[in-house]
From TrEMBL:
SUPFAM superfamilies: Periplasmic binding protein-like II, Winged helix' DNA-binding domain. Residues 6-63 form the HTH lysR-type domain. Signal peptide: none annotated. The keyword Transcription applies. One of its GO terms (molecular function) is sequence-specific DNA binding. It comes from the Bacteria. Keywords: DNA-binding, Transcription, Transcription regulation. GO terms for biological process: DNA-templated transcription. It holds the Pfam family HTH_1. Belongs to the LysR transcriptional regulatory family. This is DNA-binding transcriptional regulator, LysR family. It comes from Pseudoalteromonas denitrificans DSM 6059.
Length: 295
């Protein structure tokens, strides 16, 4: 049935060697001798009829075909490992959910105790997303909270749509609250994150112009720039989901805009899972709990 299926042991030896770029480190990981790993790799090369590595003395590198094969085999191993973890997890009442770090820290984590108190039978485990595009299989999770609807294999449920707005510390707000917005944005540094054109979008959509360029302070993550805003280091762009608790507690203040002003920076959050999990009761419970906050 599987005419070209290679043997598993040589595949494992090849994947470990290519990942470490070392026969000795691969042998240590697999708990076998270095010669055994080398022998298994040679068996795979013989099966494929090609060299997977370029050996130059003690230096080891992947051949062109070897690099292509390693990329595929590693993804396959990751997917197999994660799928096995999910199957074992579902059998033990574990539900794994991937979320963006900013969403988790500013909204989800403060509300997790409520979920765990209400649904003690569900072991909800949180993983952090670092990219906007989500791959549930590679992440080894059952569900996720993502921006946008990219994958046709996933079931999506809209949670909320948010518009971003300027925020600052109470101390800064007291100094600029009577000023026009353009003047306020020139008085303090503008805190910039991953999306380095968001402030420019605000300027364009509100028709703001300046005699000289604003001062920017850059941060690699929205969590960092929001903390900088709380510390009074400048003015940031945020949304309700990321700053509601800080605004309610008085750590941040939302800069008011005129009723006809729309800065045009929108985020759409979705709860997603693979379509074959539509009847999973634990995922359904997590989904309904999330939706209860955003009706």
């Amino acid at each position: 049935m599987y005419k070209y299926l290679p043997p598993l042991k040589p595949l494992r030896a090849f994947e470990a060697t290519a990942r470490h770029m070392s026969f000795s480190l691969a042998a240590k990981e697999l708990c076998v001798t270095q010669s055994a790993v080398s022998h298994q790799v040679k068996n795979l090369e013989s099966f494929l009829g090609m060299s997977l590595f370029i050996r130059q003395g003690k230096h080891l590198s992947l051949s062109e075909k070897g690099g292509q094969y390693f990329s595929f085999i590693q993804r396959m191993f990751i997917s197999l490992d994660n799928t096995t973890a999910k199957i074992m997890g579902s059998a033990s009442g574990v539900t794994r959910m991937a979320v963006y770090g900013s969403f988790a820290m500013k909204w989800l984590i403060p509300r997790l105790p409520e979920f765990r108190k209400k649904y003690p039978e569900i072991d909800l485990r949180i993983s952090m997303l670092s990219e906007e595009e989500i791959d549930l299989d590679l992440l080894g999770v059952d569900c996720g909270i993502c921006l946008g609807k990219e994958n046709t294999q996933y079931q999506y449920h809209h949670l909320l749509t948010e518009e971003w707005f300027p925020v600052c510390s109470p101390q800064i707000y007291d100094e600029i609250k009577n000023n026009p917005l353009a003047e306020s944005l020139m008085k303090y540094p503008l805190l910039e994150g991953d999306h380095q054109n968001d402030w420019q979008k605000l300027f364009d959509n509100l028709g703001l112009t300046f005699d000289k360029p604003p001062v920017y302070h850059y941060f690699s993550h929205v969590i960092l720039l929001l903390q900088a805003a709380i510390e009074g280091q400048g003015i940031a762009l945020s949304s309700d989901i990321l700053s509601k608790d800080d605004i309610d507690s008085g750590r941040l203040v939302r800069l008011p805009l005129n009723s006809d002003q729309n800065i045009g920076i929108i985020s759409h959050y979705y709860f997603c899972f693979t379509k074959d999990r539509m009847k999973d009761l634990d995922i359904k419970t997590v989904q309904n709990w999330l939706l209860s906050f955003f009706k």
